[in-house]
Amino acid sequence: MMSRKLRLGVNIDHVATIRNARGGTFPDPVRAARLAARAGADGITAHLREDRRHISDMDITRLTNEVNLPLNFEMAATEEMLGIALRHRPHAACIVPEKREERTTEGGLDAKGGLEKLKPYVARLSDAGIRVSLFIEADPAQLDAAKELGAPVVELHTGAYCEETGENRDRELKRIIDAAAYAAQLGLECHAGHGLTYDTVKPIAEIPTIVELNIGHFLIGEAVFCGLAEAMEKMRTLMDEARMGNA
Ligand code: PXP
Fold first, then answer.
1. pLDDT attached to residue 130
2. Within 6 Å (CB) of ligand 1, which residues are found?
């Protein structure tokens, strides 16, 4: 399941964070999404949180109607979010934990512990033609659970890998490499994300069975210094170089 092309999903949540700091209309996350399309992104990722701390309901409506890139709708497994997803029918929905009890020890969704609750939930999204992914730790037991749940995609949590240094980072990277190989064995499409930067993206982009990275916070922060288009283009280039083996 080697894929040469590695997709970049740009997470625009933190454009909305800056907008909401003043409660006005700018900077506009939809404008960032349009720019992402021109800068080589393959998709837009946005997380509508229960407390609406960054992305708003109107942002989701506009991202669906006004942006010419597939939308990956990050959501907690609640009835409210299910209703919103079914109304908008985004290309994809990524189920993420929002509450402590929905998380595994490291922070991904506890798919294994939530099998009973998640099974009908995943089915309702899938029946509506929405491609479901589960944001999980790089843990074989969570991958087995994703398979059992019938989710076609998993997104591996790269947060611990990005936060650690030295041998601990190497250990986290190995977990991700092993999990990505196991995902392919199970027939699951594999994505990765959280906390990725110019410095941490290469080893993840080199993993052949990972086909999509979702990156946000670093890009929005970097945009303060060099502009959003340049930040996205540089990330795109680093991903492509890693994939082609000439970095
Ligand atoms: N993937 C998922 C499932 C996420 O929840 C997030 C953070 O919202 C990201 C990717 C992007 O992480 P970051 O903003 O740290 O790049």
1. 98
2. 11, 13, 47, 74, 94, 96, 135, 155, 193-196, 214-218
